[in-house]
């Protein structure tokens, strides 16, 4: 399905457009949730992978909703701070849940390739 050919403003809807009928789609992330979502320090390969995979999922879901490639109920708008909000996949919707499972599979594949690559670098010649 091709994205709508409306002006670019239609792709980045204003936060206020999450109107009264969509208030159940709004969730403000607390600083504690933010720290749990994105590790502040990346001291291990696992932390780095967690950060990259979560950024990938966040970016993918925000683009999918902004371009209206799936129905809006498959996404929830999360307010990251006063000035930043993003659309995330809604796991409570069956289609959103399936999409998230596919994304997790893709992230796992990226993680396996990353681990194999790092082991190749560490192997003595």
Automatic annotation (TrEMBL):
Q: Which organism is it from?
A: Diploscapter pachys
Record protein name field: Uncharacterized protein
Family annotation (InterPro entries): HORMA_dom_sf
């Amino acid at each position: 399905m091709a994205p709508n050919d409306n002006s670019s403003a239609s792709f980045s809807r204003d936060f206020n457009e999450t109107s009264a009928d969509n208030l159940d789609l709004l969730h403000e992330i607390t600083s504690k949730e933010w720290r749990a979502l994105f590790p502040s320090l990346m001291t291990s390969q696992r932390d780095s992978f967690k950060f990259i995979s979560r950024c990938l999922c966040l970016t993918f879901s925000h683009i999918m909703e902004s371009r209206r490639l799936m129905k809006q109920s498959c996404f929830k708008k999360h307010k990251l701070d006063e000035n930043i909000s993003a659309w995330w996949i809604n796991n409570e919707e069956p289609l959103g849940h399936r999409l998230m499972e596919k994304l997790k599979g893709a992230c796992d594949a990226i993680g396996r390739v990353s681990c194999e690559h790092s082991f190749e670098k560490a192997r003595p010649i």
